[in-house]
Design brief:
heterodimer, A: about 280 residues, mainly alpha, MetI-like fold, two-stranded antiparallel ribbon, 11 helices, elongated, disordered N terminus, B: about 300 residues, 13 helices
């Protein structure tokens, strides 16, 4: 198939990759340095300065992104929101990747009933719409930062398991694994030292895609009031309260929304680029 | 075909059973499920009484079997807030969500498929790049952001369309676009891949050699063959739309089952939340079954080898 690159990997041209890398880096730096770069305390309310437009000046302080419904500095809240977004996405990917990869490798290595149970469970988990699974679990456990990570970590492992399982099956039949086994290495040692490094690439590709998705999930759940709880800033919850004031104060939803969009777009484009680099076959898909 | 259909049906049944089990487990993750089902501020005696009434003081295995039996009889219990059967509440909200999902499907199909075909036919041109950028943008934009942007532009700035609630066709437009955007991107991509695949086949070259114009080949032959994969994913997408309704209905204050789920979580009405999750998951499983069967029926190669 000539020229059959996907329309998304058409964006994997060098200058686009450079631009999105710069955007991603800027957002990460902003999140890490939030206490330093944030112009004001994101929780400080100034009730007489509610819903002021971007550029509003009071007492010599410039509200560059304007203020929200409680008179808080929107720019500071957006900066701290980046932190919430990235930390939740990073930790939930770490949890689901660890759980998923371990289950997939063990299922492929041990076979037997473990394989049947784990892979059936994967099929079933994937047959429940992801957002509903997360909504139900958060509803039962209650909202909050830590619980959000647990919920996302424990509902998002099946995709990693599928990849780890398929890859381990391939690797396990290779001669060097047999050699290690004959050399007396135990299962744990073989899986961690010999199998894992060889299946890390495909797992990383899934992890990148999931990272973008987790950013959207955090924002979506926080938007629904099920994620990070106010007054702690999160892009989703800022937009949720901004929804009520959208007719009078567009900036409350637009600024966090723009950052969210740029972050997810950057992660998606970089993910595609990474996939093309790690797996040349996918270029023609 | 019969063998394949039977096997696929068994798989779907296992998935439904699994979904029921997972919901049962999740409802017990926080410990005593009675606490999820009592209204806030209930007395200790009230909680004890309800625990006994609902059977949560029985062994877990007995509870599980009783739960499966109830679900199979479509008896999900009463809403603790509204004092009505949960299924009745679900049924009263369902028409709104179906209306919204149909609106979203219409937009996704009517915009997505022509866009995909155009990207395939004029491959490598400026139009393809433009459409591709448009589609990628749609894909990276969360539903609640595109929903709010639509409200901002068409509701607030231009004042053309209502921005919340349900009432008449005009109120359906914005939520349908917001909900359908992601499916539209999927249809565009599938249609593009399918048409590009067909265009590279020998019969297209033969038809061109006989003197048919490119347009005639596409309309008379290519579209018909490319329709197979595209039609089958329509069923899958419909299931996704029902799940996506949770967010879109919250943004647009649309009184469907998605809004019902979120409102029920806020009022701690878990009987209702459970029904919504089970219902949408079963539809989801049924739609993927339908998609596979339709694909097998339309494409004999799968029917014979499956």
């Amino acid at each position: 198939m000539t020229g059959g690159a996907t329309w998304r990997s058409r964006l994997s041209v060098p200058w686009v990759v450079a631009v999105v890398s710069a955007i991603l880096l800027a957002i990460v730096v902003m999140a890490v340095l939030a206490p330093l770069v944030s112009p004001a305390d994101p929780a400080r309310q100034t009730l007489i300065a509610r819903l002021r437009p971007p550029g509003y000046v009071a007492n010599g302080f410039v509200y560059r992104f304007g203020t929200d419904e409680l008179g808080r500095d929107l720019l500071s809240r957006v900066i701290w929101g980046a932190r919430a977004s990235l930390v939740v996405a990073l930790l939930s990917v770490a949890v689901s990747l660890s759980v998923g990869a371990l289950l997939g490798m063990v299922a492929a290595w041990k076979r037997g009933w473990i394989e049947i149970v784990v892979m059936r469970l994967v099929d079933i988990m994937l047959s429940i719409p992801a957002i509903l699974l997360a909504v139900l679990t958060v509803a039962v456990l209650g909202p909050g930062f830590g619980k959000l990570i647990i919920v996302l970590g424990l509902t998002r492992w099946p995709r990693y398991t599928r990849v780890a399982y398929a890859q381990t099956l391939q690797v396990a039949s290779l001669p060097y694994i047999k050699a290690a086994e004959l050399g007396g290495a135990g299962s744990l040692r073989i899986l961690s030292r010999h199998v894992l490094p060889n299946i890390a690439g495909p797992l990383l590709v899934v992890a990148t895609a999931e990272f973008g998705l987790m950013i959207l999930f955090e924002a979506g759940l926080s938007f629904l009031g099920l994620g990070i709880q106010p007054p702690q800033p999160s892009w989703g919850s800022i937009m949720s309260s901004g929804r009520q004031y959208v007719e009078r104060a567009w900036w409350i939803t637009l600024f966090p929304g723009a950052f969210l969009f740029l972050l997810v777009l950057s992660v998606n484009v970089l993910g595609d680029w990474l996939r093309d680099r790690l797996d040349p076959r996918s270029r023609n898909r | 075909m019969a063998g394949y259909a039977f096997w696929r049906l068994v798989q779907a049944a296992i998935a439904v059973f699994g979904v029921m089990t997972i919901v049962f487990v999740i409802m017990r993750l926080a410990g005593d499920p009675t606490l999820l089902l009592v209204p806030e501020g209930a007395t200790r005696e009230h909680i004890e009484a309800l625990r006994h009434e609902l059977g949560f003081d029985r062994p877990i295995a007995v509870q599980y079997v009783a739960y499966l039996a109830d679900v199979l009889r479509l008896d999900f219990g009463q809403s603790v807030v509204q004092r009505l059967p949960a299924t009745a509440i679900l049924a009263s909200r369902l028409p709104y969500t179906l209306e919204l999902a149909l609106g979203a499907s219409a937009i996704a199909l009517l915009v997505g498929i022509p866009a995909g075909v155009a990207m395939a036919v004029w491959r490598g041109g400026a139009l393809e790049r433009l459409l591709a950028t448009f589609v990628v943008t749609g894909q990276s934009m969360p539903t609640f952001l595109s929903g709010i942007l639509l409200i901002l532009v068409f509701g607030v700035l231009l004042g053309w369309l209502p921005t919340s609630g349900s009432g008449g066709l005009s109120s359906l437009v914005l939520p349908s676009i917001a909900l359908g955007a992601l499916s539209m991107a999927t249809f565009a991509r599938m249609a593009r891949i399918a048409v590009v695949d067909e265009l590279s086949k020998d019969y297209v070259r033969a038809a061109r050699a006989r003197g048919l114009s490119q347009g005639a080949v596409v309309v008379r032959h290519v579209l018909r063959n490319a329709a197979v994969p595209v039609v089958t994913i329509a069923a899958l997408e419909f299931g996704n739309l029902l799940a996506g309704a949770v967010i879109v209905e919250t943004v647009f204050a649309w009184p469907g089952i998605g809004q019902l789920a979120i409102q029920s979580i806020q009022s701690r009405d878990f009987v209702v939340v459970q029904v919504v999750v089970l219902f949408v998951s079963v539809i989801y499983v049924a739609m993927s079954l339908l998609a596979d069967l339709a694909y097998a029926w339309l494409d004999p190669r799968i029917r014979l080898h499956g």
